[in-house]
Amino acid sequence: MGPSSLFMPTTVFTIANQKGGVGKTTTAVNLGAALADKKIHTLIVDLDPQANATSALGVEKQAGRSLYGPLRGEGSALEMITPTAYEHLAVIPSEEDLAAAEIELAQGENYLARLRGVLESVRASNGYRAIIIDCPPALGMLSMNSLAAADYLLITLQCEYMALEGLGQILRNVDRLKSANINPALELGGVVMTMFDMRTNLSRQVVDEVKKHLPDKIFSSVIPRTVRLSEAPSFGKTIFAYDPLSPGASAYKALAKEVIERFGLAQK
User: What's the confidence (pLDDT) of residue 3?
Assistant: First the structure.
């Protein structure tokens, strides 16, 4: 990787929301790919036992190739890093074993800090400028571990009725982790509005509502509701490999540009 002085510190993002189907994995994969396209060394950590991010990146699920072992103190996260078809983008895959970690983590000591400890070796390697953790659609042990390991939380929020209710719930969990001193430095990095339908008033109203509550946190780039974005993972491709000229690809490029600027990720 070259001398560590060439690298800037690693920034860890977790993409979490207790609801499923709100564009978490789509955002993790395509934001990661868009950052990599800008030559920012990026690692996606698939923490969801369903392994959707792994398959969306065209990586085969393999027994023993997830963070299940390292979370149990067996092996290291560095050994699990797997290249993808995209330059500057790697993944720590997931597989079904990870579902057992959800139960087993609660029985160990420092159970909320396990992932942070496991990712220390990756941070120390100076190989990655950005680590993006994709969480399961629930605020269970794995998601809480990802919040405890992250510098910033990115929330994907679907442009639909009741979206703000879910937002409040996850922000309360962030406050709990901070006040319990588990991750006092954790910050809300931003809110990504997903599945935006320009034909409906509701989509615009939800965006306006979030802007009112969190004016400095909402990203300007809004992710549209498109068939192409939902089709791409079934071909094991990012939106850029599947349909680079689509509105979804443009939206994720714009989001990556905002993320690079907001968190100072550009290589010096």
Answer: 39
| pLDDT score, position 108 | 82
* Domain extent at residue 11: 4-263
pLDDT for 8: 77
DSSP string, 156-193: EEESSTTHHHHHHHHHHHHHHHHHTTSSTT-EEEEEEE
Residues shown for the chain: 268
Q: Identify the pLDDT of residue 19.
A: 73
**Alpha helices for the chain (secondary structure H):** 24-37, 52-56, 68-71, 77-80, 98-104, 114-124, 141-149, 163-179, 201-213, 227-231, 239-242, 247-263
Contacts of 224 (CB under 8 A, 6+ apart): 195, 196, 197, 198, 247, 248, 251
Residue 76 lies in a domain: yes
* CATH classification of the domain holding 132: 3.40.50.300
Residue 172 is which amino acid? Answer: R
Angle at 163 between CA 160 and CA 164, to 5 degrees: 140
Q: Are 48 and 135 in contact (CB under 8 A)?
A: yes
DSSP string, 89-113: EEEE---TTHHHHHHHGGGSTTTTS
Residue 86 covered by a domain: yes
pLDDT at position 6:
54
Angle among Cα 42, 44, 47 to the nearest 5 degrees reads 160
Ranges of the chain whose pLDDT falls below 50: 1-5
